[in-house]
């Protein structure tokens, strides 16, 4: 019930070679759990922004009244990666030792914001639900930690997909929950939900 909401949320987006450099933003209004209304959209050309500095932008909503105030910083991606099993970060003894030293007790207060390091190996799924008429699915896996999100590639026409990917995250809050969701790719339509698991970091 506000025409001037303040969210104060931080989102980290990780750009790789197959990503476009346009940030699309939508603002929605919720009346209740069932009814939602689009209040406006805006777009930011990331390639046009100066790097290694925080850019304060006031973005008018297209075809609707109002604007968004945002802080956007473009910087080299650190602490987050996607790799194959054979080259995972903790697989190298030297890198494992460096990470152990980085998070040892004597270095606890060197960088208060650097809570920890999480590595997730997404191997495979078994006996997924068939979402297509052919009796198969086109599954991919999405990992979310706080406001960070990474995903695997899609394995087509398979109910027992093997991804064999390694994901690394920087931990910002030890009370965060790692959410792993499996979807069925459905062309231009929204993906179908196939299942989800939530893992609190404190349980690891």
UniProtKB/TrEMBL annotation:
Localization per Swiss-Prot or TrEMBL: Membrane
The record's annotation in PROSITE patterns points to: C2 (PS50004)
**Which stretches make up the C2 domain?**
1-59, 93-204
User: Which biological process terms from the Gene Ontology are attached to this UniProt entry?
Assistant: regulation of neurotransmitter secretion
Q: How does it sit in the membrane?
A: Multi-pass membrane protein
Keywords assigned by UniProt, alphabetized:
Calcium, Membrane, Metal-binding, Repeat, Transmembrane, Transmembrane helix
Q: Which Pfam families match?
A: C2 (PF00168)
Write out the GO MF terms.
calcium ion binding
Q: Which residues cross the membrane?
A: none
Q: Which GO terms describe its cellular component?
A: synaptic vesicle membrane
Q: Which family does it belong to?
A: Belongs to the MCTP family.
Q: List the protein's name.
A: MCTP2 protein
Record the organism. Answer: Certhia brachydactyla
Q: Which gene encodes it?
A: Mctp2
